[in-house]
C-alpha cells in the first residue's frame, strides 16, 4: 500500500467537478471545443481587469526583486495587510488593524489554516447544505467531522433551528458561504442576524467560542442591486475569508486574505496559530507578487454585468424550455431540479448532448445539477439547441418551467 487509507478514501470520492472538467477536455478534443458546452467548473471567463495587469507590470519593473520575490513574515506583507484592514474598515465600519489580517492562498488556503488552527481530532464543523463540496476534505484534513444541516430546497435560505439542534459540545466552527455555491442563493440580513443570535446562545451554552467562518469568494457577485450584509459586523467571533479567484478572475494565482475582529475571543492566540498554520501546512506565505498586486487593486470592481448577462440568458431560456431552475441571486451558478430526481443519470444524458453539468449530491443537494455560467456568453447561446433537445428527450414542456 503506497498511499494512506485516508487519502485512498478521498481519491475514491475524488471531486466530481474535476472529473467533469477533464471529460469536457476529452470531448473537446473529439468534437471541437465549440461543440462542447462545458458548465462544470467555476473558472471565471470574465477578463482579468486591466488594473491587475498594470499592477503586475509596474511592480515587476519598479520594485526591488528581493522584496517582490523573497521570503517574508508568514502572515504576509505588513503594508498590504494594512491596506486590506483600511479597506474593510472604510467599507464595513470595522476596526481591523494589520495584525488581524492574514494573507492566504485563496479561500481554500484560508479555510485550511483556520481549521488547522481550531480543530482537534473528533471536533465538529457545521455547514449548511448545499455547500461547496471541498469543505468535507478541508475538515477531515485535521481529523474534524463535518455535520451538515439539510438544505431548504424551497427558499434556499438557512434553517437556523435545524442548525441549533446540530450544535454539540464538540462544535468548534460553522462554515457559511454567501452568496452560495452551488445554489446561487443570497442570505437575507434577517436570516444572518438570526444565525448570529443563535450562535451567541450556543456559545453561552458551550462555554467556548463557536467560530463562524464567512467564506465569501463571491461577495461582489450579487445581482439586482442587493446588498450583502457584512456578518463580522454583528457576530464577534466571525472570521471573514475573502478571495480574488472569482471576482478578479485570478483562481490560479491563489490569493486571498482572512480577517479576525480584534475583540474576538482569544484573538492574539488565534492570530498566532493561524500564522503558524500558514507555515506548517507548507503555504509558508501567500504568493508574494499577487499580494502586492491586490494591495494595489482592492477597489477594483468585478465585472458584474458580464455574469448578469449570462445569468439572465441561461435562466430565462432554460425556464422557457420547461426546466425547473433555482433563480440565482448571486455567485455564478444555477441549480436545476432534475425531473426524476436522479442527478447522475440526468448529467449522463446531458453529456450525450455535449452539455457538462455537475450533479450536486456531493454538495449535500441530491436531485439537482449545477451549471456554472461563468463562461463566454457565446457558449450559452450555442448550447441552447442542445438544452432544447435534452428537454424534449426528458419530456419537459414550457409550462413545467418556472420563469418569473
Ligand atoms: N469557497 C467556495 C464557496 C468556492 O466556491 C471556492 C471555489 O470554487 C472556494 C472556496 C475556493 O476558492 P479559492 O480559489 O479562493 O481557493
Overall average pLDDT: 95
Radius of gyration: 21 Å
Residue share in helix: 40-55%
Associated small molecules: pyridoxal-5'-phosphate
Total number of beta strands: 13
CATH superfamily of the largest domain: Type I PLP-dependent aspartate aminotransferase-like (Major domain)
H and E string:
HHEHHHEHEHEHEHEEEHHHEEHEEEH
Q: What percentage of amino acids are in beta strands?
A: 5-15%
Q: Which structural class is indicated by helix and strand composition?
A: alpha/beta
Outline the low-pLDDT stretches. none
CATH class of the largest domain: Alpha Beta
> Could you tell me how far the N terminus lies from the C terminus, measured between alpha carbons in angstroms?
55 Å
CATH T-level topology of the largest domain: Aspartate Aminotransferase, domain 2
Q: How would a textbook summarize the main sheet?
A: 7 strands, mixed
Number of domains: 2
Strand order, biggest sheet?
2-8-7-6-5-3-4
Amino acid at each position: 500500500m503506497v498511499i494512506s487509507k485516508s487519502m485512498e478514501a478521498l481519491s475514491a470520492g475524488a471531486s466530481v467537478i474535476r472529473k467533469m472538467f477533464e471529460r469536457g477536455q476529452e470531448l473537446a478534443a473529439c468534437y471541437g471545443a465549440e461543440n462542447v458546452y462545458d458548465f462544470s467548473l467555476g473558472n471565471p471567463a470574465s477578463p482579468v481587469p486591466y488594473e491587475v495587469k498594470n499592477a503586475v507590470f509596474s511592480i515587476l519593473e519598479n520594485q526591488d526583486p528581493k522584496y517582490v520575490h523573497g521570503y517574508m513574515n508568514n502572515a504576509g506583507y505588513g503594508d498590504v495587510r494594512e491596506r486590506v484592514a483600511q479597506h474593510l474598515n472604510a467599507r464595513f465600519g470595522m476596526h481591523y488593524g494589520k495584525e488581524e489580517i492574514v494573507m492566504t492562498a485563496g479561500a481554500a488556503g484560508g479555510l485550511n489554516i483556520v481549521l488547522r488552527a481550531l480543530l482537534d481530532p473528533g471536533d465538529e464543523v457545521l455547514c449548511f447544505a448545499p455547500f461547496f463540496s471541498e469543505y468535507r476534505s478541508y475538515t477531515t484534513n485535521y481529523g474534524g467531522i463535518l455535520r451538515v444541516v439539510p438544505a431548504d430546497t424551497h427558499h434556499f435560505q438557512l434553517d437556523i433551528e435545524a442548525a441549533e439542534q446540530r450544535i454539540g459540545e464538540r462544535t468548534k466552527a460553522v462554515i457559511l458561504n454567501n452568496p452560495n455555491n452551488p445554489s446561487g442563493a443570497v442570505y437575507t440580513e434577517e436570516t444572518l442576524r438570526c444565525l448570529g443570535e443563535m450562535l451567541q446562545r450556543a456559545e453561552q451554552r458551550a462555554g467556548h467560542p463557536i467560530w463562524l467562518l464567512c467564506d465569501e469568494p463571491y461577495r461582489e457577485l450579487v445581482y439586482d442591486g442587493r446588498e450583502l450584509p457584512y456578518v463580522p459586523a454583528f457576530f464577534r467571533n466571525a472570521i471573514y475569508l475573502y478571495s480574488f479567484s472569482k471576482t478578479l478572475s485570478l483562481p490560479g494565482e491563489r490569493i486571498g486574505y482572512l480577517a479576525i475582529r480584534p475583540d474576538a475571543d482569544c484573538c492574539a492566540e488565534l492570530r498566532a496559530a493561524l500564522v503558524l498554520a500558514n507555515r506548517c501546512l507548507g503555504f509558508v506565505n501567500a504568493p508574494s507578487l499577487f499580494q502586492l498586486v491586490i494591495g494595489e487593486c482592492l477597489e477594483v470592481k468585478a465585472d458584474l454585468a458580464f455574469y448578469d448577462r449570462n445569468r439572465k440568458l441561461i435562466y430565462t431560456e432554460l425556464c422557457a424550455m420547461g426546466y425547473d431552475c433555482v433563480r440565482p441571486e448571486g455567485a455564478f451558478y444555477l441549480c436545476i431540479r432534475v425531473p426524476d430526481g436522479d442527478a447522475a443519470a440526468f448529467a449522463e444524458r446531458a453529456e450525450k448532448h455535449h452539455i457538462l453539468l455537475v450533479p450536486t449530491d456531493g454538495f449535500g443537494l441530491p436531485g439537482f445539477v449545477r451549471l456554472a455560467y461563468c463562461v463566454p456568453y457565446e457558449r450559452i447561446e450555442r448550447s441552447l439547441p442542445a438544452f432544447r433537445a435534452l428537454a424534449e428527450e426528458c419530456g419537459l414542456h414550457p409550462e413545467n418551467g418556472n420563469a418569473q
